[in-house]
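Q: How do we represent a protein-ligand complex in a form that can be generated token by token?
A: Start from the inputs.
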Amino acid sequence: MTAVTTGTTTKAGAVRLRGVSKRYPGGTLALDGVDLSVQPGEFVCLVGASGCGKSTLLNLVAGLDAPTAGEIDVEGGRAAFMFQEPALFPWLKVGQNVEVPLKLRGVSRAERRAQALDLLATVRLRDVADKRPHELSGGMRQRVALARTLAQDAPVLLMDEPFAALDAMTRDALHDELERVWLERKLSVLFVTHNVREAVRLGDRIILLASRPGRVIQEFVVDQPRPRRLDDPSVAALAGEVTDRLKEEVRRHVS
Ligand SMILES: Nc1ncnc2c1ncn2[C@@H]1O[C@H](COP(=O)(O)OP(=O)(O)OP(=O)(O)O)[C@@H](O)[C@H]1O
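Then emit the structure tokens for the protein with adenosine-5'-triphosphate bound:
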């Protein structure tokens, strides 16, 4: 395990931000000169104190908002986005929910059903295709949301605290699930979390953002072999190191 303070990242990547700043109309400078990259096939976790601009950054990469300054490149020109809430359409069956992005991509009606079932099989939920979302547990709903996100067929996956609302056991299972899907599909992932252990469990790298304004202050390379467990001593040790750095940053703000 090594910790390096980042400077600019120059290599082309699946996601690349150069000098990205975001000032909201009210005047808040949410991000200030952020440089970061996600390499193809890499899993990068973004952590930082509340309000440091993590969601702002993901929204910019997703193209939901525009930066005030700087450049953002995303492989294939677009990324798929998954949120904390599964946000499934309650009036549609599970399979139909997964079909929505396929429809938007112009996949024919005949093809859609088969593709949706394949995607549900990827998250091991093929047999619930004809149920309604309310019939599923929270963890199952989030797996359906993952299948629906995969249906966007983008090489880059943006995840904004996707497991924050789940209990510890379910979250643990979802870590395994996501890791498997990421490796199978060779996705590039930018994953926001408040949970430092989760970041060490999943990430190839952890990028730490400072608050007000949001800037990259440190980067941690996680080189523990996979699959990792949340309670691995080496995971706990690195999580401790990241948390200490985070606390230092929070103290800097309150003092
Ligand atoms: N639409 C907006 N208009 C004005 N200010 C905003 C807007 N969205 C976010 N902000 C401000 O920008 C800063 C960064 O917010 P952002 O939600 O990106 O942080 P975050 O790190 O994701 O926070 P949290 O961890 O609490 O979700 C905060 O000071 C927030 O109040």
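The beta strands are 2-4, 15-23, 29-38, 43-48, 69-74, 80-82, 156-160, 188-192, 205-210, 215-221. Residues 1 and 224 are 7 Å apart (CA to CA).
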